[in-house]
Amino acid sequence: MAKALIAVSTSSSSYPFALFSSSSEAMAMCSTFCPRLSTHLNCKSFSLFPVKPRFFVSIKAFSSQTSASAPKADDLPSSIGFLGLGIMGSPMAQNLIKAGCDVTVWNRTKSKCEPLISLGAKYKSSPEEVAASCDVTFAMLADPESAADVACGKYGAAKGMGPGKGYVDVSTVDGETSKLICEHIRATGAHFLEAPVSGSKKPAEDGQLIFLTAGDGVLYEKVAPLLDIMGKSRFYLGEVGNGAAMKLVVNMVMGSMMASFAEGLVLSEKVGLDPSVLVEVISQGAISAPMYAIKGPSMVKSSYPTAFPLKHQQKDLRLALGLAESVSQPTPIAAATNELYKVAKSHGLNDQDFSAVIEALKVKLKH
């Protein structure tokens, strides 16, 4: 039995809305940390508007059966580059290779390329060489500085771009950085698409990411089958900068949710309650979220296996605050949350999972 998801956003509003057949489906779609579903999801999209809307509006049918319309290697760009093989980039590139794609990789630390090379990937020694040898090049870098350098630096991807090629930046950066990269790529005659992802390590491994894209529509259509290999859904949001803004808003909300959840766990224990019971209570109420159910048990045990590094969550909060400042929008909760993550970083928790922010609260309570 197929179920339907309707995602609607009009040109008169900057707020997208979604209707789901059940609350459980809504949580599964919206959560960054949703575990892989037991069924294979295949999506088809079509526009509801006779004219170009501000945001892409789609109806996607999710079938429990594998569809004949699933992307095949013959339908994909003939050669794909992937720059950046960290906690997210490596599993994303692996999924492309496993789907039969011809993938060429690069990473600053070459040893991180070895597992992919063993799976059949090719290797080039610079982003420029990767871009020159591929039809479409993806980039997943840790921060705006790295993203800009890999795209626009001395041996950057832009040096290898040209007409007919495409560059898809799936990094989480601010809008200005995305526009800078876009300018350099388009100057070569190539197409550009920003496509930051909502999702962490496990969704990346399972091909369950959510792509928030903006930029050249022709490139979006070209790489849609690739996005479907790596993710469970994709949104086209119009002009470059919109994808970056959407991702920063999502991660701002996520970081604040985690900080509030951490406060609750610490407070419950401080007053003599069992924090494990709190996790269970929350999981059965209106504020239930997959993130709490997944992270809660480990947090209670002071264990923080890294799925999304704390340093990246703080970086995204910082960028989100800059975005808010640019439009004079007060974000006091996010500002306070950012300070808490900065405290956690000062205690050496940079590379721990962002749920380790709870340790910053424990430190404060000891004083």
In sequence order, what are the helices and strands, one letter per element? EEHEEHEHEHEHEHEEHEHEHHHHHH
In terms of DSSP E residues, the strand content is 5-15%
CA-atom Rg in angstroms: 21 Å
| Net shape | globular
Structure annotation, total helices:
14
Average of per-residue pLDDT values: 85
Report low-confidence residues grouped into runs of 5 or more.
Answer: 1-54, 57-71
Distance from N terminus to C terminus (CA atoms, Å) equals 57 Å
The number of distinct β-strands equals 12
**Derived structural class:** alpha/beta
The largest sheet, given as strand count, sense and whether it forms a barrel, is: 9 strands, mixed
Q: Fraction of residues in helices?
A: 40-55%
In short:
This protein has 367 residues and is α/β, with parallel strands linked by helices.
Task: Describe the secondary structure blueprint for this structure.
Layout: E1 3-8, E2 17-19, H1 23-30, E3 58-62, E4 80-83, H2 89-98, E5 103-106, H3 114-118, E6 122-123, H4 127-133, E7 136-139, H5 144-152, E8 166-169, H6 175-186, E9 191-194, E10 197-198, H7 201-206, E11 209-215, H8 217-230, E12 231-236, H9 242-270, H10 275-283, H11 290-300, H12 310-326, H13 332-346, H14 358-365
Parallel strand pairs: 4-5, 4-7, 5-6, 7-8, 8-9, 11-12
Antiparallel strand pairs: 1-2, 1-3, 9-11, 10-11
Helix pairs in contact: 5-6, 9-10, 9-11, 9-12, 9-13, 10-11, 12-13, 13-14
